[in-house]
Amino acid sequence: MPIRSLDNAAPCPCGSGDRFDGCCAPVLAGSPPATAEGLMRSRYTAFAVGDAEYLAGSWHPGSRPESLEVDDDLSWAGLEILDTERGQSGDTRGVVEFRAHFQQGHGRGANRGVLRERSRFVFQSGRWWYLDGVLR
Prior knowledge:
Blueprint: H1 24-28, H2 36-49, H3 52-57, E1 74-86, E2 93-104, E3 111-124, E4 127-135
């Protein structure tokens, strides 16, 4: 699936309220986020634009699947951060609970849904990594 491009002046898909070029665009381009929540938001944006390479690269090597595909039949429609625990500068662990709204399919046959996950993150080698998550 090709990566969908976004206008840099558009609102970031992660729902932060910031412009894409001042939020997740630099992270997707290689600038590591400062917090676990920042990594969560950038991963959501990567799903929204179809950037499987970023998703794999932000997943901890010890828990990353051998292959990762982004479903081009899913459209991501909004992210809500429900809870965070730690995950700030100086922390080595963090947790972010979120709801991600999606639509599967197109037109009249489309299904809407919500994915809720409590994700764990670890800070190693000078950066945050997605470790795993539990669906709720």
